[in-house]
Design goal:
Length: 85
């Protein structure tokens, strides 16, 4: 499972903080944080997310990806959870 974030994204910081309090796991599964503002992170984001969007499609961070599915991030009561499609 991956969480795509950016340094200049306030909601990303809230998600990262909540994830850290949970031991970097969601439902027992380890989450890898990918910063899209690094060269490596953007390349990965481009290959795994942007290249798969329909023409004209837009998407932003924070974004969770699990088993190839985009996940809605929920930060209720300081706990990070996901709803994947």
């Amino acid at each position: 499972m991956k969480l795509y974030t950016a340094k200049h994204c306030a909601p990303c910081h809230a998600a990262i903080d909540a994830l850290a309090k949970q031991g970097n796991t969601i439902d027992g599964e380890e989450v890898r944080i990918v910063d899209v503002e690094t060269d490596e992170g953007f390349k990965e984001f481009e290959e795994e997310v942007l290249s798969k969007l329909p023409d004209g499609g837009e998407i932003g961070v924070p974004l969770a990806l699990k088993d190839g599915q985009y996940c809605r991030i929920d930060l209720a009561n300081g706990k990070l959870s996901l709803a994947c499609q």
